[in-house]
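Dear support,

I submitted the protein below through the web form. The confirmation email said the job was done, but the results page showed an empty box. After a refresh the structure appeared. I'm attaching both so you can tell me whether what I see now is the final result or a partial one.
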Amino acid sequence: MAPHTNLLSLIGSPVLGVAATYSRKTDVYICGVDIRDNDDLVLTFPKGHQLAVDQKITLHLDNRTGVDEYDAELRVYRGSYKGLVTKVQDNQILVKPIEFEIYYGVSVIYRFAERVYEHPIDERVQRELPITPLTELPIPDLREVENKIGVLVTQAKSQPHTTVLAFLSSAEDDIFFITFPETFKSKLLKRDHHCHFAIDSRAVFTYTQAIEWNYTIIEADAYQIPQSHHLFEPIREAFVQKNPWEVGFFSHPQVELYHLKPRKVVCPTHAE
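What the results page shows now:
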């Protein structure tokens, strides 16, 4: 790794970020992110925030702004940045890193961890998710055709975890995605199926418009759609039609198809 490599050289700045914290509940924000040379972050929240100094925060960071076509390896720089709030001033905060790994394709190409950092032990029991309550194929959401990728926020120990993935959405704000049993997100959802999903529209809107107006945050519960379920094949077909680079994953015998059923949806009105 070249000595000058840092978050700024990989991700660029400013970018949109999906931020998540634990307070009395899980709070999820879309925010502006200015990345400093030392990997600190300055976050801007146009609609305000409830964050405080010494609060842990997780940021999903990537450089996919303006990208609407992908391949199976997801060739963008991306990562889940665990940090600590060190300064709060009005609608901005300063965050210092605790731990992160930046991926390109399937490889980690840059990482950071405090010397004292250890991944929290998670003793929660994993249980199979309940079967989807859906009985028929939902109507796809044509408004999200251009948005191929969203950010899943799951309930990890100590602070939330974020991951970017392809999705299919319905007109009723259901979200569908695929993963595998060995992934961190799959294990977390089997410990706590309450989660959030953020669609930030960065593929089709500029930075300023997107941070102010164009995003959806869905609070949801996760369900499984087994391969034997009568909806697995029609949802697979609709999913691949929207995300054709994902077709190969469905040939894996352990592929998992998940349904996020919304509890609450935050979708700000577009600017006039």
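Response: this is the final, complete result; the empty box was a page-load delay. The first helix runs from residue 7 to 11.
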